[in-house]
Amino acid sequence: MKIQYTKTIYRDEQYVAFPNLAKLKNDQIICAFRHAPERQKEYGACTHVDPLAKDVFITSPDGGKTFDNVLHTIVDDEMMSDQDPCVNVLSDGRIIVTYFRWALCPIGEGCDKWGEANFKSFGRSLWNKYDCYTDGAAYSISDDNGKTWKHYPALHMEGMPASGGVRGNIVELPSGELLLPIYGSLHVGELARAGLLHSTDRGETWSHLSDMAFDPTHTKNFLEPGLYYTPKGKLVGLFRTQTDYRLPGVEFDDTYLNLHIAVSHDDGRTFEPVKEIEGLWGSSPFHALRLKDDRVLLTYGYRREPYGIRARICDPELEHIEDAEEIILRDDGLNGDLGYPNSILLEDGTALVSYYISGKDGIRTIDVTALK
């Protein structure tokens, strides 16, 4: 594997993060991401929750070589922090963008608005300004290549964590059924589990299908699951895994664990026990991309020194991930607020990897690395 180039595709002095690439049916390439005001001078630190955060995308007119600077809005909710847009292009061209949202209210009103037990377990207070609570996963659909969007309500149903989120992309099975990975705590006092929703009507409606990973000993959080469907029809869930970061005195950055995976042989109805991948430490979601020879490009953020982005070229069935050599794509990050890589395959076989990272001045940018 050879790095062809690394470059910034979007910067505007604001806080941009959590990118996701997609190739539309009209051959246009888009990159979606979260856009919010830069608050470091105001708050003294960055924040991932902001009442003005929205989900947007930019477009490439030349197959991913360059991207324009015009922001196209997917969703922008009042007093909602819109997060983590993931772009999914179905075989018929329909675009489904999934995301999750933090709802905000004035400081001190969270317990009354969302219930004391729920707010204390799943909410937080920010900068003595806001109380916030996860409003859940939601989605928008476009049938005209992103020109217009139909917005759907948050996905609340039995088996779906009320405070849950979504980061990983949808898998479209050969049958046309859609699988959507979700995560969150189902009950107060539990750690996060990873699960699947499914749709049989092209994403118009969803129902809970199964749990992919849950630790009844309450030792591990299974977060931000990615999905990969192998050439032999095996479904693999890949989980960012952490210990309980809410415990008193625990530093969040010290809770990251190795990659954990779970495998299904029946299209996500049931999963084998979760397996830890020894020696593969990653502290942002993992993304798997099938290459032209059926091997898999696995990318992930690395949130300890040297901060950056890493990758592995794995076997087609993801059965020997631990044996794949780790490749450093970037090791020049200013801090650990980076990652969330996502990749697409260009026409000439080049893999284009997107992610966010801090510049030397502390301003976050959306960058890409091209791999041949």
* Beta-strand percent range: over 45%
| Helical residues, percent | under 10%
* Overall shape: globular
The low-confidence parts are none
Give a quick account of the main beta sheet: strands, pairing sense, barrel closure: 5 strands, antiparallel
Cα distance spanning the termini: 6 Å
What's the order of the H and E elements?
A: EEEHEEEEHHEEEEEEEEEEEEEEEEEE
Structural class: mainly beta
Mean pLDDT comes to 96
How many whole angstroms does the radius of gyration measure?
19 Å
Tally of alpha and pi helices: 3
Number of strands: 25
Could you please describe the fold and organization of this structure?
The chain is mostly beta strands and 372 residues long. It is built from 3 helices and 25 strands. The protein has helices at residues 40-43, 110-114, 116-122; strands spanning 3-10, 15-23, 29-36, 54-60, 72-75, 80-89, 95-106, 123-126, 130-142, 150-152, 171-172, 178-184, 193-199, 207-213, 221-229, 235-242, 258-264, 275-281, 287-290, 296-302, 308-314, 326-330, 339-345, 351-358, 364-371. The strands form 6 sheets. Strands 6, 7, 8, 9 and 10 form a 5-stranded antiparallel sheet that branches. A 4-stranded antiparallel sheet has the order 1-25-24-23, with no helix packed on it. β19 (287-290) and β20 form a beta hairpin.
